[in-house]
Amino acid sequence: MSETTAPAGDLAARAGKLDAEDELAALRDRFVLDDVTYLDGNSLGALPAAVPDRVADVVRRQWGRLRIRSWDESGWWTAPERIGDRIAPLVGAAPGQIVVGDSTSVNVFKALVAAVRLAREAGGGDRDEILVDATTFPTDGYIARSAARLTGCALRQADPAEVPGALGERTAAVLLNHVDYRTGRLHDLPALTAAVHAAGAPVVWDLCHSAGALPVGLDAHGVDLAVGCTYKYLNGGPGSPAFLYVRRDLQDRFDSPLPGWNSHAEPFGMRPDYAPAPGAVRGRVGTPDILSMLALEAALEVWDGVSVEAVRAKSLALTDFFLECVAAYVPAGRVESLTPAAHSERGSQVALRCSPGLPPSAGPGGALTAEEVMRRLTERGVVGDFRHPDVLRFGFTPLYVGFADVERAARVLAEILA
Amino acid sequence: MSETTAPAGDLAARAGKLDAEDELAALRDRFVLDDVTYLDGNSLGALPAAVPDRVADVVRRQWGRLRIRSWDESGWWTAPERIGDRIAPLVGAAPGQIVVGDSTSVNVFKALVAAVRLAREAGGGDRDEILVDATTFPTDGYIARSAARLTGCALRQADPAEVPGALGERTAAVLLNHVDYRTGRLHDLPALTAAVHAAGAPVVWDLCHSAGALPVGLDAHGVDLAVGCTYKYLNGGPGSPAFLYVRRDLQDRFDSPLPGWNSHAEPFGMRPDYAPAPGAVRGRVGTPDILSMLALEAALEVWDGVSVEAVRAKSLALTDFFLECVAAYVPAGRVESLTPAAHSERGSQVALRCSPGLPPSAGPGGALTAEEVMRRLTERGVVGDFRHPDVLRFGFTPLYVGFADVERAARVLAEILA
Prior knowledge:
2 copies of one chain form a homodimer.
Chain A: H1 8-21, E1 31-32, E2 37-38, E3 47-48, H2 51-66, H3 70-73, H4 79-87, E4 98-100, H5 104-121, E5 129-133, H6 138-151, E6 154-158, H7 163-166, E7 171-177, H8 189-198, E8 203-206, E9 225-228, E10 243-246, H9 290-299, H10 308-329, E11 336-337, E12 349-353, H11 370-379, E13 382-383, E14 385-387, E15 391-395, H12 403-417
Parallel strand pairs in A: 2-13, 5-6, 5-7, 7-8, 8-9
Antiparallel strand pairs in A: 1-3, 4-10, 9-10, 11-12, 12-15, 14-15
């Protein structure tokens, strides 16, 4: 980090002023929080205050008393598309293009196989290569390899910056992460989408680390297909169902490799032959996990009256301030930011490399590993997470993280590394 | 139905005596129930009494206070295999062969594609036909068609009775339902499994309508792969995650089409290359839906000290008694049982065909449709369900349904049809 130093008192005072001026500060009351500085909302969002009572009602009344009637009377059956429409404005999508359900991995599979079929149906019958972000969260790569194997494609990997040069007539589909899970780097969705389209292929975007953190603009940028999880910046709870976006004009040609009875045009007709439903519903598969799904629905109420643009502005202010505090507090050379300095390349997290190879800061045992540093931070009430082998990740959720949290996190980190 | 009639008082008295002698009667207290006669547990099981407080704890304490720490400290990460081991004895499986997660449809896909790969790896490289139960719950057929398409197989359909004759050197995998969702017919799992094995192919059994209702004997009968849902006779709640059984000696060769990071040998190693975990964990995919999954775990506690054999004995007594009451109360010709009379061919439900083509029993509008009959039954506190076009289904869950419920259901049905 830089050699700049500022007295701790100055930065703490700055934090207080920034919090006092923060128009989103009151949103913290929409969550159940304590005095922990929780910077792991990029892994599991905090509990929204509306969720416990809602879940209790779903269990005790909807399931316990209405039982089977709730599929109609409590709106269970239509929850996947209804909640999809609640997520839609957060990622820049008009209604009717998103369904919620299954895990991100399963949705990546649906989207990638469907993308290959779209490319081939559109006259690219000889396209035989799936191109995937080489820095992707691993599961996307594993699933992409399976999708390639099942559709007779080769799997090609390229860093996002090298994707334009790797595109060609063989490209059947491209899978990209909007924000790198490890470094927090934000990729250029509009430009990369345009490049993939210029090569005649559809693109699938993984929004796990951007949905709810920054504007995505799915419709505006003509994205074909997208997936994302809901338990990070959307605060849906552990393992809450993922979402799948299918652009409206592609829906009639969306040919899912997982055509379950929930995506049938007439699900209770119990027909032996499959006839896909119109619209985003075509992306459903089996019976939705109602408890997790309706917890997510309650969680999304924290977004009432909140604009993603305001969230993004605060997110950048938070990560800027964190980098400033780390530079001021942490002795030079102890950590190194992997997160781009440019706003246009930064998601809503900061990743610090904290390698035992960097100057040691421990006692008799020698250098502290990154894993040990994160353990000590957690003990002292600053929760981030660790990613193998040497990365400390700090996620900044503007809905409930304030500037005092940021200053505290950097200060405690400095004390541990001192 | 038969022309036998018995005075209602006699049957009501019989019901009272049977309930008084029922060793499982006290289990009803393990559920939240009211005065409704709930005969739809084959679609959505009733709420177990332990679930609401458990779910509240998962939400408020595990998610709300421990947050990310719960992946370790609250046992979230290992829930799929831990809960799989809780289901195992109910379907005759030794530990370490079942994981819970995803929907039944998604698990059918994993199992069928893996089954085709097993057959081909075992020297059947030219096997190119997936054989599926023609009377299957529709989603299995849709998924089987997709699995066939993606593995270069043809899809062949046959009634379970005709499966032995349809097997051959081309058979790559067979998908069968243990109990027919519509008629309640129980198929001969040991004999059909042996027949498929004799043809050199693996078999996938769908246990949705048998798990928790009758002994399955997966290990004893050498079943290769099986899937099942947990929200029917296992009472896991709406859309609770399904399960996947992979026989121990096949696990090292189980080659999933959905290899997500949760099935990686080192999930937090974040390796770009996939290396499957050993054991049943290989059947996992993405992040498990913890709320639904831990509700299921609490729900499974109702099985403490309960044998599936005792449940089966009561189930047969309940369905026998229902058929007897219907025969006694309902005027001849108004309904017709689609459920086999032989115990060896009967699941835990009774399906009555109630067609407008049968003698009318309505007022000015003419005959009552089956759908209307079920609506009136529900209004009068007897809840079953309707399956297109003319089937009334009544599920008998021995854990909370008694003989007085059975007598009431038949009596109210008779009054509606009178």
